[in-house]
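Recap from last week: sequence in, structure out.
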Amino acid sequence: MKLESLLYALLNFAANPLKSWGEPTSGDLVNGQVAHIAIEPADRNSARLSSGTYTRQQLAAFRLQCAEIERTGQGVACFSGDPHHLPGCVPMIKCSKCTKLFRSMDTGAEVKCYDCTLSDFCPELTGRHISASWCKTRQSENPQYAYGWYMEARGDIGFRNEMCYQWHNRNSAGNLCHQDLLVRRNAAEEIYELVFRTLVQASERCYAATFDVKESTVKFTVRNATSLSNPKYTAEVAVDKVDPLVIALMVAMMPEWMLYEHSPKHSDVSGYPKYPEVVQV
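Predicted structure tokens:
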């Protein structure tokens, strides 16, 4: 396989991993989870105070906690009780934002409920976190035709716009090899860089090919490593100096059905960049 053809297969995979792996066993690759600003205890306390969602006893206990912290310099003050289930002695009013009824000690016209106040303090972010996993197994009387492939995808949309897919075969005598693909996109969600890494644990080597999709260039690195994330000793190798057997190894370690589904023969690659550096395997 040419290095250029490998790039096309990886681009096809990055565009639609479900084509070869199917729907995730767990998680969500499409919608992900909406990200929020982290909610701290102080944010919850401020929301309780601003919305008036407390009883006189809860407010007095909270002030005592604050006074003790002022005196000792230790501890954390927190309101007790549930702001959504206050006793009947607390007046019922309407939220000025969502208009739902809630109980509050503050009966002003502009008071918001606890949830609306907290969402103002810690709003939703425009980005999403993505996390999904796959499991593809096949049992066979002949071990040669049995497999147990697993893949995980983690990344985000709207922040760094990166997604990392990592897969391995558990039939390979205790995870002797791992591969992953780091996909980097711009704000328009166009892929501008791919980093394809293959870890060969037996030789403690990690081979990485970095494709600059926009500039149509490729960089190849080799490093001593026992994991894909281990940065120990890295050496860059000119593409024309790379042993074709290394490229062949990287391709051979991919699931054959994954390589088949995303190969250029089965996809439209007319819009993909052309690479002058071609390594024939």
